[in-house]
Write a structure and sequence with these properties.
By secondary structure, the protein is mainly α. 80% of the residues lie in helices and 0% in strands.
Length: 171
């Protein structure tokens, strides 16, 4: 039976080897990979217990090849995403620590600024939010808060003075 299986597989490759090679070449980046996958198709076909049970051996041949291409692509992605820690460029990146102190300092300042802004009277706070976070004009803010544009300017000025004083005290 082993001779029969080998004979069937050899016949398949004799008849469809060129088409199989072309099929694989169109689906992988490197020609040597296509040749290697063709050999693996041959090996997998030889592992099939009963080739006589396969109704369409040519279709099965290309199904095996298609599955191998998918498997190969997964391996390629995994290998491409892997980092070689021995690479000098990677070593250099790993040796340079990110500026966590600066990031933490900025986060603390932003948190403190939010606390300081929460201390403002409601309309003054609203004017700051509408001006600096929503980019609204003095006229739009005045209309929204039901005050004059002069009062909006006064609210923003008060907020600025308040924030400068409170933030300066914190160092």
């Amino acid at each position: 039976m082993a001779d029969t299986k080998q004979t069937i597989v050899e016949r398949l490759f004799a008849q469809h080897g060129g088409a199989l090679q072309a099929f694989l070449s169109r689906r992988v980046r490197k020609q040597p990979d296509a040749a290697e996958l063709a050999q693996e198709v041959y090996v997998r076909m030889l592992r099939v217990t009963d080739l006589g049970e396969i109704h369409n051996p040519e279709g099965y041949l290309f199904t095996v090849a298609s599955n191998l291409v998918k498997e190969h692509a997964r391996h390629e992605r995994r290998d491409r995403d892997a980092v070689d820690v021995e690479d000098p460029l990677v070593q250099q990146e790993l040796s340079e620590l990110p500026p966590f102190a600066g990031l933490l300092d900025t986060e603390m300042r932003v948190k403190r600024l939010r606390e300081v802004l929460e201390q403002l009277p409601p309309k003054c706070h609203a004017a700051v939010v509408l001006q600096y976070w929503h980019g609204q004009s003095y006229e739009e803010i005045a209309k929204r808060l039901g005050v004059s544009t002069h009062m909006v300017k006064k609210y923003l000025s008060q907020a600025l003075v308040h924030c400068r004083r409170r933030m300066a005290r914190l160092g």
